[in-house]
Design a protein that fits this description.
730 residues, binds magnesium ion, globular, 7-stranded parallel β-sheet, alpha/beta, Rossmann fold, binds adenosine-5'-diphosphate, OB fold (Dihydrolipoamide Acetyltransferase, E2P), 26 helices
């Protein structure tokens, strides 16, 4: 095979730079796909863009809609380059651009000397970014993405040619490899290299989705014949990438289904029926749907491995309990694990109470129980007297011996790792005579996970979702206040306490060291309890307290010994204090979106109207003039605004994913997700959904990929698993 350096336009230096990017052979160049395209047709005119924005423009930042995530593209020529002196020795660089419908400004706040050298009058630029309208009604882009379009390219795209844009690394740029030269090099080799690329999807799939063949796909990705051809080619590549990943996932799931036995549980359980008939409320249709899904799994003879997602307060516990009763009536034991002792206790008391007229023994197993009491508990678990065992991690210590433990529920945890699962299964197995069996596992989480991630990172689990809330819930009213409004906020606190409610005041830990954090927590508490809220009883809760001190503080709050609980984020997951109806979150700009949502879920748990007030710096009132970096203040703004607009955890999770990206949310390494080259976990939910269904159907009908029409899939999958790449080369 020809080596890179002999390709026309490459040579040894450039070849070396390309190797650093993982391009070793000419065919790798074919797979060096553009990251985006310059297409005359995707750009808006300045006039139409400013009209669009004006329609949604806002007077007051916190009162109206903003186009949150839209990126806009315009093509315009530089008309003026201007360096502007700002107060405080600061400078900004302003480019004024025009097309034949109007003008826009591009503003640089940083690296001004660098940009001054690059931009000159008369250059034609392609801009993509998020513009704002300034007080003179002019569109401003600050630090947008910019491509300079040279004369030759201009001629091409005036003709309507779609031009690919390649990622150019610093090393590539240093030896003169720019987008245009890469385009030329690829055009030099494509005719020679393309014949060596072998089709990597079966015919029936290409036909089913109307995808072009691989050769045509690759050609169109570099040199699009048309917008339509480019789009289907790109979809094919994305689909293919995610399909192989998902086939891999489905195959491992299938393997479990083929090899493992699950306890067959009859869903027609007398106890479940009885509890159901005596509930003081109607189950929501989502709750019923999920019970059905769990019952189906448990009846199937295969072990269940299911994630139940439902926002705080959506009613997951009763779903768990009803399905637990099915298992108990079938003669088995069940375990319910909570993340903290106090939550375990709450669940224990709650379940005991709901089953008080049933002849079913409920036990509690947590750390720190007295030796004698513990011994009795362990005995009752072992001889099978206790049917439901509620507890913390203590449940999974090796000295605990179960008696036919067939169902394990893990509450408030959305990542239950492979190893933890394996340990748990081992422990459960010791309680059976027949070691082929595997217990049913239900992991419950109140942290909504965006759909793209449940389909991929959580692909090994079946997922149930409770979307709708019980009818009697009043949505929490959320507002944003600036620090200068704090006196008002504190007045509201006083009025709520006087009406008999309790209040959370939460603030972030900003200090680097634990010592300083502790000091900050204590100082804040002293200030609030001694100065602002002298007349009320205040409690303190922070991360540096011992676990039992934390639990004591929470319990005291629950028992109404405090009016106000001043706390760091440690209350995030936790306890139900129905009487708390107001949460103040200070320095709200420092919290992540999901975290804000989790915190807010601590109120609104009784029937009363609840409130959440997000307090932030006055700085954020005027993002353009504040000293904070523009992108940061926009992200803050988006987070706070989203909180006021919705209480739907799934919507919030999607926004969060868009703001932070999947790597940050999941910790990509930890999640077991490969780094996808083409699939975008933020925006490609549709493609992923279709691929998921396809992968499922394929493995369902041909579990070992033995059918002739799946030969391509089987061969490539083996390669995929080994190399994480799937374009076959003859
Ligand atoms: P979470 O999903 O956060 O664990 P819980 O299971 O603790 O929520 O339920 C919150 C509260 O809502 C509980 O007091 C529970 O009894 C109540 N609840 C559950 N389902 C319904 C329903 N369908 N209608 C009314 N209240 C419900
Ligand atoms: Mg719960």
């Amino acid at each position: 095979m020809e080596s890179l350096q002999y390709i026309k336009g490459v040579g040894p230096k450039r070849a070396e730079a390309l190797v650093k990017e993982g391009i070793l052979l000419p065919r790798d160049l074919l797979l060096y796909f553009p990251r985006s395209y310059i297409d005359r047709n995707t750009a808006s005119s300045i006039a139409s863009l400013s009209k669009q924005l004006q329609n949604s423009n806002q007077k007051d930042l916190f009162e109206s809609d903003v186009i949150l995530y839209s990126e806009f593209v315009i093509i315009a020529r530089i008309y003026m380059v201007q360096t502007v002196n700002l107060p405080g020795n600061r400078k900004m660089l302003k480019l004024v651009l025009r097309d034949n419908t109007g003008s826009v400004n591009i503003i640089f706040w940083n690296r001004i000397q660098f940009f001054e050298k690059i931009y000159q009058n008369g250059q034609l630029l392609l801009i993509s970014g998020k513009p704002e309208i300034d007080k003179y009604g002019i569109l401003n882009f600050s630090h947008p993405e910019i491509d300079i379009i040279d004369n030759e390219d201009e001629a091409l795209f005036q003709k309507g040619v779609i031009l690919p844009k390649y990622r150019i690394s610093e090393g590539m740029a240093n030896c003169g490899l720019n987008i245009k030269i890469i385009r030329q090099i690829i055009s030099n080799i494509i005719d020679k290299e393309l014949p060596h690329i072998v089709e990597s999807l079966p015919d029936y799939i290409l036909q089913q989705f109307n995808f072009p063949a691989i050769k045509s796909t690759i050609r169109n990705i570099h040199f699009p014949e048309s917008k339509e051809m480019l789009e289907v080619s790109r979809s094919r590549v994305k689909f293919e990438e995610i399909l192989y990943f998902l086939l891999h996932v489905e195959l491992s799931k299938q393997r479990i289904k083929l090899n493992d036995f699950g306890f067959v549980i009859n869903p027609k359980s007398k106890s479940a029926r009885r509890l159901y008939d005596n509930l003081p409320f109607q189950l929501t249709s989502d709750q019923k749907k999920v019970i059905r899904e769990i019952a189906d799994d448990m009846e199937s003879g295969k072990p269940m491995n299911r994630l139940l997602q439902g926002d705080v307060g959506s009613g997951k516990t009763i779903v768990a309990l009803l399905t637990m009763l099915m298992v108990i009536d079938a003669g088995y034991q069940v375990v319910f694990m909570a993340p903290t002792e106090i939550l375990a206790e709450q669940h224990y008391l709650n379940i005991k109470n709901m089953l008080k007229d049933f002849d079913i023994e409920v036990a509690q197993l947590v750390g720190g129980q007295k030796v004698k009491a513990r011994r009795t508990i362990l005995e009752k678990i072992l001889d099978g007297t206790s049917k439901i065992i509620v507890g913390t991690h203590a449940l999974f210590q090796s000295e605990v011996r179960y008696n036919k433990l067939a169902y394990v529920i893990i509450d408030e945890q959305h990542r239950f790792g492979v190893q933890q699962r394996a340990d748990l299964i081992e422990l459960a197995k010791q309680s059976y005579d027949d070691k082929q069996f595997i217990p049913h596992i239900l992991v419950m989480s109140a942290t909504p996970i965006p759909r793209t991630l449940t389909m991929t990172a959580y692909g090994d689990l079946d997922v149930s979702i409770i979307k709708s809330m019980p009818k009697n819930r009043k949505p929490i009213i959320t507002s944003i206040k600036f620090e200068s409004n704090l006196p008002e906020v504190y007045d509201f606190v006083r009025s709520q306490i006087k009406s008999g409610f309790q209040i959370y005041i939460v603030y972030p830990l900003v200090e680097k060291s634990e010592k300083m954090a502790l000091k900050a927590a204590t100082e804040h508490y002293e200030y609030l309890s001694n100065e602002i809220f002298k007349e009320f009883k205040c409690g303190l809760l922070h991360g540096q307290m011992f676990w039992y001190e934390k639990e004591d503080a929470m319990k005291a709050f629950l028992n109404k010994e405090y009016d106000i609980l001043i706390s760091t984020t440690v209350i995030e997951v936790g306890i139900d204090v129905p009487n708390a109806n107001l949460m103040i979150i200070e320095n709200a700009e420092r919290f992540g979106l999901s975290q804000l949502h989790q915190l807010r879920g601590r109120v609104g748990r009784g029937g009363d109207q609840s409130y959440c007030i997000l307090v932030t710096k006055d700085d954020f009132k005027y993002p353009l003039s504040s000293k904070t970096k523009i992108d940061d203040s926009k992200a803050v703004f988006t987070r706070l605004k989203t909180m006021t607009e919705t209480t739907d955890g799934f919507k919030i999770a999607e926004v969060d994913l868009k703001l932070r990206g999947p790597g940050d949310i999941m910790g990509t390494k930890q999640s077991g997700l490969p780094e996808f080259k083409f699939i975008d976990l933020v925006n490609d939910a549709d493609v992923i959904g279709i691929a998921k269904k396809t992968a499922y159907q394929i493995i369902e009908t041909d579990p070992l990929l033995k059918n002739e029409n799946n030969t391509i899939l089987r061969n490539n999958l083996e390669k995929y698993i080994k190399h994480k790449t799937f374009f076959d080369i003859a």
